Amino acid sequence: MNRRTVGRQPKYQRIAADLKAAIAAGTYTPGQRIPGENDLMATYEVARMTARQALATLRSEGLIEARKGAGIFVRQYEVVIRRRGVQRLSLNLWAQGKSVWSADIDDRSLEVDSVSVMEEPAPKGVAATLDTPAEAPVCVRRRRFLLDGRPVLFATSYLDAELVAGTAITQPDTGPGGIYARLDEIGHKPVHFREEIRSRMPNAEETAGLGLTPGTPVTLICRTAFAEDGRAVEVNDMVLDSSAYVLEYEFDA
Amino acid sequence: MNRRTVGRQPKYQRIAADLKAAIAAGTYTPGQRIPGENDLMATYEVARMTARQALATLRSEGLIEARKGAGIFVRQYEVVIRRRGVQRLSLNLWAQGKSVWSADIDDRSLEVDSVSVMEEPAPKGVAATLDTPAEAPVCVRRRRFLLDGRPVLFATSYLDAELVAGTAITQPDTGPGGIYARLDEIGHKPVHFREEIRSRMPNAEETAGLGLTPGTPVTLICRTAFAEDGRAVEVNDMVLDSSAYVLEYEFDA
DNA sequence: AAGTGGTCTAGACCACCAC
DNA sequence: TGGTGGTCTAGACCACTTT
After folding, report:
1. What is the Cα–Cα distance from A162 to A63, expressed in whole angstroms?
2. Which sequence ranges are marked TM in the entry (chains A, B) (predicted)?
3. pLDDT at B148
4. Which nucleotides of strand C lie under 7 Å from a protein CB?
5. pLDDT exceeds 60 at position B1
6. Residue B247: what pLDDT?
7. Which string of b and e fits B31-54 if b means at least 16 CB within 10 Å?
8. Is the terminal CB of chain B with fewer CB neighbours within 10 Å at N or C?
9. In angstroms, how far is D13 C1' from B8 CA?
């Protein structure tokens, strides 16, 4: 019980602080292996669970990554997708302004992985937004998007089932121009958008489906598309791997 | 060693799944106390660390909250701030469209807690954006914002030190209209904005400063303000308690 | 085959909170 | 004062990766 030697700080926090400092100082570089459980047990003379807790701290901050049977590695954030919320002003003055956060890849180079279309009752808030009856089924389109084979985004669209009945929107392949082109054809062209952004820790399903490293939150985008008459014609609920995305919005004062 | 009885699933995951199901089913409601370590040890006949790990799973998903000496409680997300990225179009058609995510409080009802102004070298990306020499000191303004006494936001502004020298921007109190009014007065009125949004787990400093419950990520907003001539005049780096915020952006097709 | 992280046990002492 | 969660120990077996 040499617990009174250190000034009230738990051992695992001291070990974690040491490792963090070493990573910050560049002693260990991204992708490199760092001391694992057995190493920490030896050098700090602690039990396995204590070493694990120190590593758990770093993992929860997204600094390291454990690979079963291989070791602990400094995490590297490489591919970043820049998602431009307002992308239509392509050739304006501001487009040349330097951005603080670099992003290698554009939103458009994603591939669709799987599509499902079905009719389900809409979630509470969605039904209110679409102005459909509370328990009535709506058209639900679920898609997953990949970047270089790695899943980075889940998207779920909700549309008024009566409105889109008989259109390609109820088919897996919506045809050229996608949902919005089809909505235009039936006289409900989206002309205005609202995006609501939140962030939280993923549940087990999201962690598995997006292949998330523990310690990675998800970013949620809920986009509502409005037609000319002000009617909400689509709600698109997106779940993003937050380590893969930078969202960008530009607007004038 | 009754490990082969269950089909490959770790005990702690099964316990966690049970608790999650109970919370989802409404057996335990937000703010209510749920079975703690000792209860789980007894009912599932497991060791303390196993029960803890089950609870750690729920905590990392932001579902529960541990209060030392008191017990484990279902987390409740109450106050949400709606931060409107583009708020100037106050009386347009879309303002009446129903939003999916409710938000009780507006961005403006925040109080400033502490302000510090100093000259420091700018971070790498910031210097490039502001177009200042790499190691040159810039004006750095740090502020913390409270909602009902609870910290919810850190904001750090970076400005060209030479540009703002002699203005109230270098003072803790920037006067009526704040930084942007002062920039206007010296002929660099911000007329265009870019906001870049990311999300990650907080470090220890952010967790303490924002009073974050474990399992809560932070949302990062990096706003760049541009003057008429296209010059970037301010970079504002914000760290938000993600459980307190919904970000909103509206724009036309 | 050796080493790694993942899971699990059966204990222990502590600081903190509610009663 | 008794119960709670937080920290810690000294073992153990397992699945997995690497060599």
Report:
1. 48
2. none
3. 81
4. 2-18
5. no
6. 94
7. eeebbbbeebbeebebeeebbbbb
8. N
9. 15
> Domains of chain B: which residue ranges?
11-74, 81-248
| pLDDT at site B38 | 92
Report the amino acid identity of residue B232.
A
* Class of domain B11-74 as given by CATH: mainly alpha
- The CATH code belonging to domain A81-248 is 3.40.1410.10
Distance from C-alpha of B115 to C-alpha of B173, rounded to nearest angstrom = 9
How far are the Cα atoms of A30, A80, A138, A152 from residue A105, in angstroms, in the given order? 20, 6, 34, 13
DSSP 3-state assignment of B130? helix
- Alpha-carbon distance values, B211 to A214, B60, B81, B109, B205 (Å): 22, 16, 16, 19, 10
Question: Which one, of B219, B239, B244, lies nearest residue B77 by Cα?
Answer: B244
- In angstroms, the separation between the Cα of residue A165 and the nearest Cα of chain B is 23
CA distances from B16 to A82, B69, B116, B244 (A): 36, 21, 44, 26
Residue nearest to nucleotide D18 (CA to C1'): A70
pLDDT one-digit tens code per residue, B174-206 = 888 888 889 999 999 998 899 999 999 998 889
Rounded to 5, what percent of chain A is helix, strand, coil?
A: 30, 35, 35
Tokens of B60: 């990392």
Closest chain B C-alpha to A114 CA, distance in angstroms: 26
